[in-house]
Design brief:
Elements: H1 11-22, E1 28-31, H2 36-45, E2 50-52, H3 54-60, H4 71-84, E3 89-92, H5 100-112, E4 117-121, H6 140-153, E5 160-165, H7 168-171, H8 173-185, E6 190-193, H9 199-208, E7 213-216, H10 228-234, E8 238-241, H11 244-263, H12 276-283, H13 285-295
Parallel strand pairs: 1-8, 2-3, 3-4, 4-5, 5-6, 6-7, 7-8
């Protein structure tokens, strides 16, 4: 049964691995998973972590990314995904779902859900997608209080608290650097600067901030899509691909549905589908059959 119904690696060990990875010389590549099955695939292919995007979770619920999701919804999906993977899971906790005390509670709930780390952002609530215009950020002092509350609630010292700043596109990179330094002093373990544009921007940030840094390589946004190798050479410690798997899946689903509507059959789509045998392989179907046989390996006599 080991590794069948749940991951074999404990939450504590995943957090220790995440922190060790951030402190290593190798960049941690962390694609987004929109469900547990995708997280299983991310692990099998060989990435270092799994990311859960607030924008993706909102979209999955048919909602825009403007802070409508609740702590319960986000933590529930986080627990479902963390359960199936031995990789550390980093989750988007938006602005902490309320005031500083809410941010503190968010940390305890995410720890209990088996998450390895979360990021809190300095946007005004209700927030919006980090690559859209018209964002607003709270005063530095408010975000520092938010972070300090989160730090105070942490029980596992290896649980990674990441501070995201959206100030670069509003106040400029220098202001964002000042914020990042203040957030590091408040106890953040990792800094996520949203919507940087060029490699030079990433280099400037790396030179100015003394703690681990996370890059967001989301598509169709404000950032140049830099390779993991380039980011590692600059000195970044982690990179997320938050919406990539959802965009791939939705594009394929839309294309396939239009084909069925137009032709009345999915026959021409079979070579674009995951085969049943591959799905069963990911789900370890044969191991479940073996387990079932071992449990129900008796026969009933006439008088039983």
């Amino acid at each position: 049964m080991t590794g069948l119904l749940a991951a074999t690696t404990s939450a504590a060990d995943k957090r220790a691995a995440f922190r060790a990875g951030l402190n290593s010389t190798r960049i941690q590549r962390i694609p987004g998973a929109f469900n547990p099955l995708v997280a299983t695939l991310i692990q099998e292919i060989g990435f270092e972590g799994v990311y859960i995007s607030g924008a993706v979770l909102s979209a999955d619920l048919g909602l825009p990314d403007i802070g409508l999701t609740t702590l319960t919804e986000v933590a529930g999906r986080g627990q479902q995904i963390a359960r199936v993977t031995d990789l550390p899971v980093l989750i988007d906790a938006d602005t902490g779902f309320g005031e500083p005390m809410s941010a503190a509670r968010t940390v305890t709930v995410m720890e209990d859900a088996g998450i390895a780390g979360l990021h809190l952002e300095d946007q005004v609530n209700p927030k919006r997608c980090g690559h859209l215009d018209g964002k607003a950020v709270v005063p530095v002092e408010d975000m520092v209080r938010r972070l300090r509350a989160a730090v105070s609630a942490r029980r596992d010292p290896n649980f990674v608290l990441c501070a995201r700043t959206d100030a670069a596109g509003i106040e400029g990179i220098d202001a964002a650097i000042d914020r990042a330094r203040a957030y590091a002093e408040a106890g953040a373990d990792l800094i996520f600067t949203e919507a940087l544009s060029t490699a030079a921007d990433f280099e400037k940030f790396r030179a100015a901030v003394p703690i681990p840094l996370l890059a967001n390589m989301t598509e169709f946004g404000k950032s140049e899509l830099l390779s993991a190798q380039t980011l590692e050479a600059i000195g970044y410690n982690a990179v997320i691909y938050p919406v990539t798997t959802l965009r791939l899946a939705m594009h394929a689903a839309e294309s396939g549905l239009r084909e069925i509507l137009a032709t009345g059959t999915q026959a021409a789509l079979l070579d674009r589908m995951q085969h049943r045998s591959r799905l069963y392989e990911l789900l370890q179907y044969e191991r479940y059959n073996e387990f079932d046989s071992e449990i129900y390996n008796f026969t009933l006599g006439r008088n039983q």
